[in-house]
Design a protein that fits this description.
Length: about 250
């Protein structure tokens, strides 16, 4: 593979947990400025893959380059942001206080707090305690924290889990705006109807990539009526192939 113009480049990535191999030789190339959906059922390896890209996952073998540097490099700390599944904010602080705290840790300009509050549409609740916010607002606070310092790569693990369709739509519109500004986004989800919002789809099951394609390309190659149907067809093909080999 050639790593020029790749935001993320992965070759033969293997991760073990105890005696169980979680990722089985993953290969992946993510172009800059793309919104890539990492889709698949819970337990399929999505979070492990994202942690490896961020550089917080111990890997057994393989290569993981991010923005031209090995994942986890000190030089990437201000260029890569990671939003975990659980909201990583303090309930007893206001939105603005949370962001001011994270800004100080990152060492970025004070003006960043106002910028990310505006970007995530949190102005009306900026001085409210986080514990008083709705689930969607709390998710936006976590996202605002990830946006501090204008990272080039955003890695978002299940950012819309538990949100209603309206709130999910609002977050996805924000993701598209960020991508239009040149930010690369990796967004994991087990909600298949979010697939159409992505530029590219990575379908992961049991630690293996079943497909890496555009939404349209995935439907064309499988004959599926939607992404969920396409995913089920891919699983059926993989199962059939295994049975054929055995």
């Amino acid at each position: 593979m050639v790593n020029s113009q790749a935001a993320v480049l992965i070759e033969d990535l293997r991760v073990r947990r105890d005696k169980h191999e979680v990722l089985h030789g993953i290969d992946l190339r993510v172009p800059p400025g793309a919104v890539v959906g990492v889709l698949g059922p819970s337990g399929g390896g999505k979070s492990t893959l994202l942690r490896a890209i961020v550089g917080v996952q111990i890997v057994q073998s393989g290569r993981v380059d991010v923005l031209g540097l090995p994942a986890g490099s000190a030089a990437l700390r201000s260029r890569v942001a990671y939003m975990t599944q659980g909201t990583s904010v303090y309930d007893d602080l206001t939105v603005r206080q949370n962001l001011a705290y994270f800004r100080a840790i990152l060492g970025v300009a004070r003006s960043e707090v106002d910028r990310v509050i505006e970007a995530t549409d949190l102005g009306d609740v900026a001085d409210s305690l986080v514990e008083t916010l709705s689930g969607g607002q709390r998710s936006r606070v976590s996202l605002a924290g990830a946006l501090l310092g204008s990272p080039e790569l955003l890695v978002l693990d299940e950012p819309t889990v538990g949100l209603d369709p309206v709130l999910r739509g609002e977050l996805w519109r924000l993701f598209r705006t960020l991508a239009a500004g040149g930010v690369t986004l990796l967004v994991s989800s087990h909600v298949m109807d979010e697939a159409a919002r992505c530029d590219r789809l990575l379908l992961l099951r049991e630690g293996e990539i079943l497909a890496d394609d555009t939404p349209a390309g995935l439907l064309e190659s499988t004959g599926g009526v939607d992404t969920e149907d396409a995913f089920l067809r891919l699983i059926e093909r993989a199962t059939t192939d295994v049975r054929g080999v055995s």
